[in-house]
Input
Amino acid sequence: MSSLVVVGSVAIDSIKTPFGERERSLGGSATHFSASASFYTDVAVVAVIGDDFTAEDEAVFHERKVNIANLKRVAGGQTFRWVGEYGFDLNTAVTKDTQLNVFADFKPELSQDARNAPFLFLGNIQPTLQREVREQSNAKFVAMDTMNLWIDIARDELIKTINVVDAIIINDAEARQLAQEANLVTAAKKILSFGPKIAIIKRGEYGASFFTKDVFFAIPAYPLESVFDPTGAGDSFAGGFMGSLASADKLDEHALRRAIVYGSVMASYNVEEFSCDRLRRLTPDEIKTRVQEFKDFTHFEI
Ligand code: AMP
Output
Protein backbone atom coordinates (compact mmCIF):
# COMPACT_ATOMS: atom_id res chain seq x y z
CA MET A 1 0.00 0.00 0.00
CA SER A 2 1.24 3.49 -0.79
CA SER A 3 1.54 5.88 2.13
CA LEU A 4 1.90 8.94 -0.11
CA VAL A 5 0.12 9.97 -3.31
CA VAL A 6 0.99 12.84 -5.63
CA VAL A 7 -1.09 14.32 -8.41
CA GLY A 8 0.75 16.59 -10.80
CA SER A 9 2.34 16.83 -14.19
CA VAL A 10 4.51 14.23 -15.84
CA ALA A 11 6.20 16.24 -18.54
CA ILE A 12 8.65 16.49 -21.33
CA ASP A 13 10.53 19.73 -20.72
CA SER A 14 12.94 21.79 -22.80
CA ILE A 15 15.29 23.63 -20.48
CA LYS A 16 17.86 26.35 -21.00
CA THR A 17 20.09 27.56 -18.17
CA PRO A 18 23.23 29.72 -18.32
CA PHE A 19 25.21 26.47 -18.08
CA GLY A 20 23.62 24.35 -20.78
CA GLU A 21 20.41 23.25 -22.43
CA ARG A 22 18.46 20.05 -22.89
CA GLU A 23 15.88 19.71 -25.63
CA ARG A 24 14.00 16.71 -24.23
CA SER A 25 14.25 16.54 -20.48
CA LEU A 26 12.01 14.33 -18.37
CA GLY A 27 10.17 16.63 -15.96
CA GLY A 28 6.88 17.49 -14.37
CA SER A 29 5.89 18.24 -10.82
CA ALA A 30 4.81 14.65 -10.06
CA THR A 31 8.00 13.23 -11.56
CA HIS A 32 10.38 15.34 -9.49
CA PHE A 33 8.21 14.95 -6.40
CA SER A 34 7.95 11.16 -6.57
CA ALA A 35 11.63 10.58 -7.40
CA SER A 36 12.49 12.56 -4.27
CA ALA A 37 9.83 11.10 -1.94
CA SER A 38 10.76 7.56 -3.00
CA PHE A 39 13.89 7.80 -0.83
CA TYR A 40 11.62 7.89 2.24
CA THR A 41 8.37 6.06 1.57
CA ASP A 42 6.10 4.23 -0.91
CA VAL A 43 4.75 6.84 -3.29
CA ALA A 44 2.12 6.62 -6.04
CA VAL A 45 1.71 9.04 -8.96
CA VAL A 46 -1.64 10.21 -10.35
CA ALA A 47 -1.02 11.76 -13.77
CA VAL A 48 -1.43 11.34 -17.50
CA ILE A 49 0.98 10.79 -20.39
CA GLY A 50 0.72 10.37 -24.15
CA ASP A 51 2.07 7.92 -26.72
CA ASP A 52 5.27 9.92 -27.01
CA PHE A 53 6.30 8.99 -23.44
CA THR A 54 8.96 6.32 -24.01
CA ALA A 55 10.11 3.34 -21.95
CA GLU A 56 13.27 5.32 -21.29
CA ASP A 57 11.19 8.20 -19.86
CA GLU A 58 9.30 5.74 -17.67
CA ALA A 59 12.48 4.08 -16.38
CA VAL A 60 12.97 6.52 -13.50
CA PHE A 61 9.66 5.42 -11.92
CA HIS A 62 10.72 1.78 -12.08
CA GLU A 63 14.22 2.46 -10.74
CA ARG A 64 12.80 4.41 -7.81
CA LYS A 65 9.97 1.87 -7.28
CA VAL A 66 7.32 4.55 -7.70
CA ASN A 67 3.80 3.14 -8.06
CA ILE A 68 2.44 4.11 -11.50
CA ALA A 69 -0.85 2.20 -11.41
CA ASN A 70 -2.58 5.63 -11.57
CA LEU A 71 -0.41 6.97 -14.41
CA LYS A 72 -2.81 6.94 -17.35
CA ARG A 73 -1.59 6.65 -20.93
CA VAL A 74 -3.85 8.28 -23.55
CA ALA A 75 -3.61 6.61 -26.95
CA GLY A 76 -3.05 9.18 -29.68
CA GLY A 77 -2.26 11.93 -27.14
CA GLN A 78 0.86 13.98 -26.50
CA THR A 79 2.50 14.33 -23.10
CA PHE A 80 2.39 17.71 -21.32
CA ARG A 81 5.24 19.96 -22.53
CA TRP A 82 6.94 22.85 -20.79
CA VAL A 83 9.66 25.07 -22.22
CA GLY A 84 11.51 27.02 -19.57
CA GLU A 85 14.54 29.24 -19.33
CA TYR A 86 16.65 30.68 -16.51
CA GLY A 87 19.04 33.61 -16.46
CA PHE A 88 21.74 34.07 -13.83
CA ASP A 89 18.97 34.50 -11.27
CA LEU A 90 18.25 30.80 -11.04
CA ASN A 91 15.37 31.40 -8.62
CA THR A 92 13.10 32.55 -11.43
CA ALA A 93 12.01 30.30 -14.29
CA VAL A 94 10.70 32.07 -17.38
CA THR A 95 8.01 29.98 -19.09
CA LYS A 96 8.50 30.17 -22.87
CA ASP A 97 5.77 27.70 -23.77
CA THR A 98 3.25 25.40 -22.10
CA GLN A 99 1.28 22.74 -23.97
CA LEU A 100 -1.27 21.02 -21.75
CA ASN A 101 -1.91 18.28 -24.34
CA VAL A 102 -3.32 15.20 -22.52
CA PHE A 103 -3.82 17.27 -19.35
CA ALA A 104 -6.50 19.34 -21.11
CA ASP A 105 -9.07 16.49 -20.80
CA PHE A 106 -7.66 14.67 -17.80
CA LYS A 107 -10.19 13.38 -15.26
CA PRO A 108 -8.21 11.87 -12.39
CA GLU A 109 -9.70 8.64 -11.03
CA LEU A 110 -7.89 7.31 -7.97
CA SER A 111 -7.59 3.60 -7.28
CA GLN A 112 -8.80 2.38 -3.86
CA ASP A 113 -5.19 2.06 -2.74
CA ALA A 114 -4.47 5.68 -3.73
CA ARG A 115 -7.65 6.95 -2.03
CA ASN A 116 -6.59 5.37 1.25
CA ALA A 117 -3.02 6.70 1.33
CA PRO A 118 -2.67 8.81 4.51
CA PHE A 119 -0.54 11.55 2.86
CA LEU A 120 -1.47 13.42 -0.31
CA PHE A 121 0.40 16.05 -2.29
CA LEU A 122 -1.38 18.18 -4.88
CA GLY A 123 1.52 19.04 -7.17
CA ASN A 124 1.45 21.96 -9.54
CA ILE A 125 -1.41 21.48 -12.01
CA GLN A 126 -4.77 23.18 -12.63
CA PRO A 127 -6.34 23.93 -9.23
CA THR A 128 -9.64 22.28 -10.21
CA LEU A 129 -7.86 19.00 -10.95
CA GLN A 130 -6.05 19.29 -7.63
CA ARG A 131 -9.41 19.63 -5.88
CA GLU A 132 -10.95 16.69 -7.75
CA VAL A 133 -8.15 14.52 -6.40
CA ARG A 134 -8.47 15.95 -2.90
CA GLU A 135 -12.21 15.12 -2.93
CA GLN A 136 -11.52 11.46 -3.76
CA SER A 137 -8.84 11.05 -1.10
CA ASN A 138 -9.18 9.95 2.53
CA ALA A 139 -5.75 11.36 3.40
CA LYS A 140 -5.16 12.74 6.90
CA PHE A 141 -2.57 15.28 5.71
CA VAL A 142 -2.79 17.13 2.40
CA ALA A 143 -0.30 19.65 1.05
CA MET A 144 -0.22 21.53 -2.23
CA ASP A 145 1.91 23.61 -4.57
CA THR A 146 0.92 26.01 -7.36
CA MET A 147 2.54 28.49 -9.75
CA ASN A 148 2.19 32.03 -11.11
CA LEU A 149 0.17 30.83 -14.13
CA TRP A 150 -2.74 29.63 -11.95
CA ILE A 151 -2.58 32.72 -9.72
CA ASP A 152 -2.93 34.76 -12.93
CA ILE A 153 -5.68 32.83 -14.69
CA ALA A 154 -7.51 30.82 -12.01
CA ARG A 155 -7.10 32.69 -8.71
CA ASP A 156 -10.64 32.01 -7.40
CA GLU A 157 -10.41 28.28 -8.15
CA LEU A 158 -6.98 28.22 -6.57
CA ILE A 159 -8.20 29.82 -3.34
CA LYS A 160 -10.98 27.21 -3.15
CA THR A 161 -8.33 24.49 -3.38
CA ILE A 162 -6.11 26.18 -0.79
CA ASN A 163 -9.10 26.13 1.54
CA VAL A 164 -9.22 22.30 1.56
CA VAL A 165 -5.56 21.52 2.30
CA ASP A 166 -3.51 21.38 5.51
CA ALA A 167 -0.34 22.92 4.07
CA ILE A 168 0.73 25.01 1.11
CA ILE A 169 4.32 24.98 -0.17
CA ILE A 170 5.08 27.82 -2.59
CA ASN A 171 7.94 30.13 -3.48
CA ASP A 172 8.30 33.71 -2.29
CA ALA A 173 7.27 35.40 -5.55
CA GLU A 174 4.13 33.23 -5.71
CA ALA A 175 3.32 33.98 -2.07
CA ARG A 176 3.52 37.73 -2.69
CA GLN A 177 1.45 37.47 -5.86
CA LEU A 178 -1.16 35.19 -4.30
CA ALA A 179 -1.58 37.30 -1.16
CA GLN A 180 -1.19 40.61 -3.00
CA GLU A 181 1.21 41.65 -0.27
CA ALA A 182 4.82 42.83 -0.63
CA ASN A 183 5.91 41.72 2.84
CA LEU A 184 6.49 37.97 3.13
CA VAL A 185 5.35 37.65 6.74
CA THR A 186 2.13 39.51 6.00
CA ALA A 187 1.72 37.42 2.84
CA ALA A 188 2.12 34.18 4.82
CA LYS A 189 -0.50 35.33 7.35
CA LYS A 190 -2.93 36.19 4.58
CA ILE A 191 -2.39 32.80 2.92
CA LEU A 192 -3.06 31.06 6.26
CA SER A 193 -6.33 33.01 6.40
CA PHE A 194 -7.36 31.16 3.18
CA GLY A 195 -7.58 27.95 5.24
CA PRO A 196 -4.37 25.90 5.61
CA LYS A 197 -2.69 25.48 9.02
CA ILE A 198 0.80 25.57 7.52
CA ALA A 199 2.45 27.79 4.89
CA ILE A 200 5.96 26.92 3.74
CA ILE A 201 7.61 29.57 1.64
CA LYS A 202 10.62 28.52 -0.44
CA ARG A 203 13.17 31.20 -1.15
CA GLY A 204 15.48 29.43 -3.63
CA GLU A 205 19.12 29.90 -2.75
CA TYR A 206 18.09 31.69 0.49
CA GLY A 207 16.30 28.72 2.05
CA ALA A 208 12.78 28.09 3.28
CA SER A 209 10.49 29.51 5.97
CA PHE A 210 7.71 27.77 7.84
CA PHE A 211 4.68 29.62 9.21
CA THR A 212 1.71 28.55 11.30
CA LYS A 213 -0.53 30.78 13.39
CA ASP A 214 1.89 30.37 16.33
CA VAL A 215 5.19 29.05 14.98
CA PHE A 216 7.95 30.43 12.76
CA PHE A 217 10.90 28.31 11.67
CA ALA A 218 13.42 28.88 8.87
CA ILE A 219 16.54 27.30 7.47
CA PRO A 220 19.03 28.46 4.86
CA ALA A 221 19.54 26.60 1.60
CA TYR A 222 22.44 24.18 1.40
CA PRO A 223 25.41 26.35 0.32
CA LEU A 224 25.93 24.90 -3.13
CA GLU A 225 28.42 26.10 -5.73
CA SER A 226 27.25 23.67 -8.38
CA VAL A 227 23.66 24.72 -9.20
CA PHE A 228 23.14 23.57 -12.77
CA ASP A 229 19.39 23.24 -13.45
CA PRO A 230 16.92 24.50 -10.83
CA THR A 231 13.94 22.80 -12.52
CA GLY A 232 12.18 20.59 -10.01
CA ALA A 233 13.83 22.16 -6.96
CA GLY A 234 10.40 22.99 -5.52
CA ASP A 235 8.97 19.56 -6.24
CA SER A 236 11.95 17.65 -4.89
CA PHE A 237 11.76 19.86 -1.78
CA ALA A 238 8.09 18.93 -1.40
CA GLY A 239 8.91 15.25 -2.07
CA GLY A 240 11.51 15.16 0.70
CA PHE A 241 9.19 17.05 3.04
CA MET A 242 6.12 14.85 2.47
CA GLY A 243 8.14 11.63 2.15
CA SER A 244 9.83 12.19 5.48
CA LEU A 245 6.51 13.01 7.21
CA ALA A 246 4.87 9.92 5.71
CA SER A 247 7.75 7.71 6.77
CA ALA A 248 7.72 9.08 10.35
CA ASP A 249 3.89 9.07 10.29
CA LYS A 250 4.02 12.04 12.66
CA LEU A 251 2.92 15.65 12.30
CA ASP A 252 4.31 17.24 15.44
CA GLU A 253 6.59 20.25 15.30
CA HIS A 254 9.80 18.18 15.49
CA ALA A 255 8.70 16.04 12.57
CA LEU A 256 7.74 19.14 10.56
CA ARG A 257 11.09 20.87 11.21
CA ARG A 258 12.99 17.71 10.25
CA ALA A 259 10.87 17.37 7.12
CA ILE A 260 11.91 20.86 5.99
CA VAL A 261 15.55 19.84 6.30
CA TYR A 262 14.97 16.64 4.30
CA GLY A 263 13.14 18.69 1.67
CA SER A 264 16.05 21.14 1.44
CA VAL A 265 18.59 18.33 1.14
CA MET A 266 16.66 16.70 -1.73
CA ALA A 267 16.30 20.03 -3.56
CA SER A 268 20.03 20.70 -3.15
CA TYR A 269 20.90 17.43 -4.88
CA ASN A 270 18.24 17.78 -7.57
CA VAL A 271 19.59 21.10 -8.88
CA GLU A 272 23.09 19.73 -9.43
CA GLU A 273 22.14 18.15 -12.78
CA PHE A 274 19.43 18.19 -15.45
CA SER A 275 16.08 16.46 -14.89
CA CYS A 276 16.16 13.69 -12.24
CA ASP A 277 19.70 12.66 -13.25
CA ARG A 278 21.29 13.41 -9.88
CA LEU A 279 18.52 11.75 -7.83
CA ARG A 280 18.84 8.63 -9.96
CA ARG A 281 22.34 8.08 -8.60
CA LEU A 282 21.77 9.52 -5.12
CA THR A 283 22.50 7.26 -2.13
CA PRO A 284 21.00 7.26 1.39
CA ASP A 285 24.50 7.97 2.75
CA GLU A 286 24.73 11.15 0.70
CA ILE A 287 21.38 12.28 2.15
CA LYS A 288 22.62 11.56 5.65
CA THR A 289 25.79 13.58 5.10
CA ARG A 290 23.92 16.74 4.05
CA VAL A 291 21.33 16.38 6.83
CA GLN A 292 24.21 16.31 9.34
CA GLU A 293 25.82 19.32 7.65
CA PHE A 294 22.53 21.22 7.96
CA LYS A 295 22.47 20.43 11.65
CA ASP A 296 26.05 21.62 12.06
CA PHE A 297 25.77 24.87 10.16
CA THR A 298 22.50 25.98 11.74
CA HIS A 299 23.59 25.15 15.31
CA PHE A 300 24.53 27.87 17.75
CA GLU A 301 24.60 28.46 21.47
CA ILE A 302 23.59 31.46 23.53
P1 AMP B 1 9.61 23.44 -10.08
O1 AMP B 1 9.80 22.49 -8.96
O2 AMP B 1 8.73 24.58 -9.71
O3 AMP B 1 10.91 23.86 -10.70
O4 AMP B 1 8.77 22.64 -11.21
C1 AMP B 1 9.29 22.35 -12.48
C2 AMP B 1 8.35 21.44 -13.25
O5 AMP B 1 7.04 22.01 -13.32
C3 AMP B 1 8.82 21.25 -14.68
O6 AMP B 1 9.40 19.97 -14.84
C4 AMP B 1 7.56 21.43 -15.53
O7 AMP B 1 7.30 20.33 -16.36
C5 AMP B 1 6.44 21.60 -14.52
N1 AMP B 1 5.49 22.64 -14.95
C6 AMP B 1 5.76 23.84 -15.49
N2 AMP B 1 4.62 24.51 -15.77
C7 AMP B 1 3.60 23.70 -15.40
C8 AMP B 1 2.15 23.81 -15.44
N3 AMP B 1 1.53 24.87 -15.94
N4 AMP B 1 1.43 22.77 -14.95
C9 AMP B 1 2.05 21.69 -14.46
N5 AMP B 1 3.37 21.52 -14.41
C10 AMP B 1 4.16 22.51 -14.86
